[in-house]
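thread: overnight batch results

M.L. [08:02]
morning all. the overnight job finished for the chain we discussed friday. pasting input first so we're all looking at the same thing
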Amino acid sequence: MRRPELVWFGIGGVPPNDSPEAYVWEQRLHWVMMGVALMSIPALYLEELSDARPARMLGAAVEVFILLAFTAELVWMLRLTQQRVAYLMRNWLDLLVIVFTIAGLAGFGSEWVALVRLTRAMVVGLLLVRAMAASRRLFRRGGLPYVLVFAFVAMLLAGFGFFWLEPTVRSYGEGLWLAIVTGTTIGYGDFVPTTTAARTFAVFIAVLGVATMSMVTASIAALMVGEDESRMRHEMHEDIRQMRLEISQLIDEEERSVIRELHLDVRELREDIAKLREDVRKALAARE
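M.L. [08:03]
and the structure it wrote out:
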């Protein structure tokens, strides 16, 4: 079950006590939709910052794909869930993404340039909120490998981006090096973005690098805290086991003491009965 505060952000997920199949599909689509949401960044870049018509058309195609993916996910989850109205209320962010994406595509190439750009920027913001919510699992214990893989793949793709956008970069290796020094905010100065497109791309990579480093730090902290919790839990279980053993020993000693006293009482009772029988026998013999 999602935390209650996530509902306010429109990412509440499947309502409680719903169909088990809906929960299964929610887990299956989790990382897929996170990747689809991150595709909004290159789509915005291609449509708004590229002068080439093929690149702008490619950005529009990516935006259409995002729209279809979110629409398909929403329709499929509404088919599986038993509480359709509650699901829509808990996931209103998906509805906003679909509506604003349609609005942006409807104004593509029209005279409403400022409104279209604002709409696309809002779509990217909404999708990034969805992606960040999906990535919250990376901050849990055991999420560090996923963060490192994400950072590795992001740097590889960023290398291609700089190789394509920056004219001073003549090889993929140089593009990868520029991506690393940009993402880590080192900036040696041997390679620098010189075009508007490369500089804009560098801003995204710098923000992504800082965010990734924060995620790595948070994952390491979660791992250390998790180890401390495991050690404390082990110590607590050991104390409980020792306490149970001591209680068991006390009970055994008490039982043995009670049994011993019971045997003494039974022996004394038998002796009293034997004496009583002897007295009765003597009394009967005297009467005769």
